[in-house]
Amino acid sequence: MARLLLIEDDLTIRTPLIRALRERGHAVAAASTAMAGLRDALEDRPDLVVLDLGLPDLDGRELLRMLRAVSSVPVIVATARDDETEIVRVLDAGADDYVVKPFTAAQLDARVRAVLRRGPSGADGQVPALVVGGLRVDPRARQVTLDGVAVELTPREFDLLHHLAGRPGQVVTKRELLTEVWQIPYGGADKTVDVHLSWLRRKLGENAQQPRYLHTVRGVGVRLEAPAAQQ
After folding, report:
1. Residue 91: is its pLDDT beyond 90?
2. Measured between alpha carbons, how far is 60 from 228 in angstroms, rounded to an integer?
3. pLDDT more than 90, % of the chain
4. Is residue 32 classed exposed, middle or buried when 0-12, 13-18 and 19+ CB atoms within 10 A define those classes?
């Protein structure tokens, strides 16, 4: 049973959604304002937050930034804004996933379960770090170091790098990345992957023209491998 916090000001959405999620086995608390949601997220430590963007006291994207500054709790953004640029901004601000209104409780429940599956697993919760050359990806602490120096990544950038680091030397298609990292099995734009790869390259101190770890395979996908001198 997952403990969910629903931050949604619309009572006609909030009430039936709480009921439906509880029927699916989740423990659900709710807040109707951004500041109440922030307080509840910090005090109650839910397993996942479902965040509406159109809140009465503060834009949900600003609340997401505030939450990310103090917590790594998974966040699914529920929004009526279906513009790709806005969705990319939300993901870059730290959302783990998004769902566009109107949506069903079944759709949201599927995304909740998918996001929670990305967390640490196993009887003792210990997940080994992934090492590729001088790159170290620690899924339990959600930390990355490059040649011993910490690399600050957004949650989505971390998920992208973690997925690639688990398949060193393999070409991973953009379709696989959209399915496994973004949880978008039936659609989505390749541009979303390209933008995040560009940001990730910059943080790793490289670019598409002079790659060290991230190598584009034109028309197919991307391959992560250690520089030749470190293999």
Report:
1. no
2. 44
3. 50
4. middle
Structure tokens that stand for 83 in this block: 């513009």
Please list the residues that pair with 171 across neighbouring strands: 223
Given a contact cutoff of 8 angstroms between Cβ atoms, the answer to whether 45 and 72 are in contact is no
DSSP state of 191: H
Kindly state the tokens that stand for 155. 């949650």
pLDDT of 62 above 70: yes
Cβ partners under 8 Å of residue 142, min gap 6: 72, 155, 158
Rounded-to-integer distance, Cα 210 and Cα 230, Å = 16
pLDDT band at 121 (very low <50, low <70, confident <90, very high): very low
Please name the helix (run of DSSP H) or strand (run of DSSP E) that holds residue 33, with its range, or none. none
In angstroms, the CA 110 to CA 114 distance is 6
Mean pLDDT, the chain, integer = 86
β-strand pairing of 149-151 with 171-173: unpaired
CB under 8 Å to 183, separation ≥6 — which residues? 97, 111, 114, 115
How confident is the model over 24-54, as pLDDT tens digits?
Answer: 999 999 999 999 999 999 888 899 999 999 9
How far apart CA 72 and CA 139 sit, in angstroms, is 12
Q: Is the dihedral of CA 99, 105, 106, 111 positive or negative?
A: positive
**pTM of the model as a whole:** 0.55
Strand, helix or coil at 202? helix
Whose structure tokens read 């598409």? 208
